[in-house]
Amino acid sequence: MDSAPAIKTENLGRIYKIRGPKKKGDQKELIALKDVTLEVPRGQLFGLLGPNGAGKTTLIKILCTLLLPTSGTAFVDGLNVATQSQDVRRQISMVSGGETSGFGLLTVEENLWMFARFYGLDNAVAKRRIAEMLEILGISDRARAKISDLSTGLRQKMNFVRGFLTDPNVVFLDEPTLGLDVTAARDVRTFVKQWMQDHPDRTLLLTTHYMAEADELCDRLAIIDKGQVLKDDTPTNLKHGLQQNAIFNLKVQPIGKKPQDNGRIEDVPGVQTVAVRDHAEFSEINLTLQDENVLPAVLTHLGGRGSSLIALEKHEPTLEDVFINLVGRRLDQDTHGQENGASE
Amino acid sequence: MALVKPLGDLPFVRANPALRAFVIGAWLGWQIESNWARPLLFAIYAVARPLASALLLVIMYSVITNGATQEPLFAFIFIGNALYIVVSSVVSGISWAVIDDREHYRVMKQLHTAPMSYYSYLIGRGVARVGIGLTSFVITMLVGVVFFQLPIALNTINWGLLILASIVGIIAMQGIGVILGAITMQLASNLWFLGEGTIAALYLFAGAIFPLDVLPEALQPFGMFYPVTYWIELSRRALLGANAPTFHAMGAIPSETLLLILTGMALFMAIASYIVYRLSLHRAKEMGRLDMETSF
């Protein structure tokens, strides 16, 4: 098993059948994953970056044996997730962000003890590890508090303890900082980084739609959208691919008053990608241009549409730009182009 | 339940995912059921509700028979009803555990990614419900003996038969509970009613408050294929001894035969529950229903 990659998927597909509101036979199909082929070596912190509805959670659910794939195969620690699910579960743990779950009537300590026992941990070992990890995450003073009395941040930290308590080989973190305040999210990221440093042979798969988080934590990233992996590389390499381009962030006011008059921004020669985000007072445009020389033509175009420039900033490529370049829209828009909101 | 923690530390329990899930499930079930933070609620649930139901029957019976509580039929009804409290607690309790985990505590993801058997865990959760059900049963019976002079004495109870029949009966009830729990895993709506609704509907076919022969002939097979019918009859006999009523058709069947039938049915239910559970689990994973939350 040691030579096998920590995670491997081959042409993995998942289709959901959604029943219509009326007739029994009235079913629609939603393709959540399409031919996903990935390989994550041991010891890597691998990220899945994509908007809501991209298929990240579906992929994690399959790898965690919660969901069966419709097609293809998936292996964790060399074990087939569909046919060796019980063996897979011995090697993994999963922590989801934004969870308000938990047996609220139990104390933090009891809840963690219970999960430790599910994994067959010895009572004394379980208690020692619980005490240690609560200390590391700074919630040892809440060990005897009932879960129902915990804030979202504290509950998430407790979930982290649960996830790492059993010393798993492969950890799945699904949007781990979702809903956390800045301090709690930073604590969680620090813990993840430290854990990977302390356990160089373990593997961690993280899904996020926070590009800064992906950039900060991940050794390698796959960009996923509409159920497909679009690119898979290190964050540096992904950004390096855009190095020869010129990337600008423009704030204009107003935009789109006369959109048909002189065509779309994308039609300006040399414009590679455009992502627009409308705010109340202005519109924000992320532009990837072939080179800086294209900018005057873009500004002329915008002027022709009646837009006035408020701010212009050139910046180094970010993962957001990589995403826009690959997908054609911003990361904070879901698969339908709506800003966040949709679930996977 | 204080025994559960050290029990869970036994090496053979720790090494076996099914056993450790059972032990922890029983511990958790007891934590949930005896949530003494709300003692009033617990008292209402465990004592007042079954007592109220028993008293309702007593009143109805008294009105119809003009207070003939010394008749064998009264003991038949009272004990049958009290025993059915255990059935209701165990069977609906297990399917309720699925709903609790999925909708209330929202821990299905955490439980189903842990290396343990959710099937055994559910049985463990059911054990706590057995405790609650038996407590309610004993209290109801005490009321029956003290206030309605049920012909039961500690030294006339056939303890061997009672314990044996109860062990086998509870296995059968656990089986039915897991089957309902497995079906609950597939449901997105009306899931709240499945356990309690089914158990309420089967109340009529269990020979709890009237003998099976009273039912129309076409409906009698429902009772004959319901393991609870045999458990109630055997327990009633064990409790009443020589005073056990023999006015109904089942009264003529020897206890040994009834116990054999009950054992066969319990075995069938245990096997069937495992098969149904496995199929349902597979289907839930196939359809993406395992951790769905319906907010119903």
List the defining traits of the structure above.
heterodimer, A: 344 residues, alpha/beta, Rossmann fold, Alpha-Beta Plaits, 2 domains, six-stranded mixed β-sheet, four-stranded antiparallel β-sheet, 10 helices, 14 strands, globular, B: 296 residues, mainly alpha, 12 helices, 0% strand
Describe the structure.
The complex is a heterodimer of chains A (344) and B (296). With 344 residues, chain A is α/β, with parallel strands linked by helices. Chain A folds into 2 domains: 7-238, Rossmann fold (3-Layer(aba) Sandwich); 244-316, Alpha-Beta Plaits, CATH 3.30.70. Chain A is 30% helix and 28% strand. Chain A has helices at residues 56-63, 85-91, 108-118, 123-136, 152-165, 182-198, 211-217, 235-240, 295-304, 319-327, and strands at residues 7-19, 27-40, 45-49, 71-76, 79-80, 92-96, 170-174, 203-208, 220-225, 228-233, 246-253, 271-278, 283-289, 308-314. In chain A, strands 6-7-8-3-9-10 form a 6-stranded mixed β-sheet, with helices on both faces. A 4-stranded antiparallel β-sheet of chain A has the order 2-1-4-5. In chain A, 45% of the residues are buried. The model of chain B has no long low-confidence stretch (mean pLDDT 87). Chain B has 12 helices and no strands. In chain B, helix 5 packs parallel to helix 8, helix 5 (72-104) runs antiparallel to helix 9 (191-202) and helix 5 packs across helix 11. Chain B is an all-alpha fold. Chain B has one domain (4-287). Chain B has helices at 4-8, 11-15, 17-33, 39-65, 72-104, 108-112, 118-148, 159-184, 191-202, 220-224, 227-240, 255-287. Classes of the chains: A alpha/beta (344), B mainly alpha (296). The interface between A and B is medium-sized, with 34 and 34 residues.
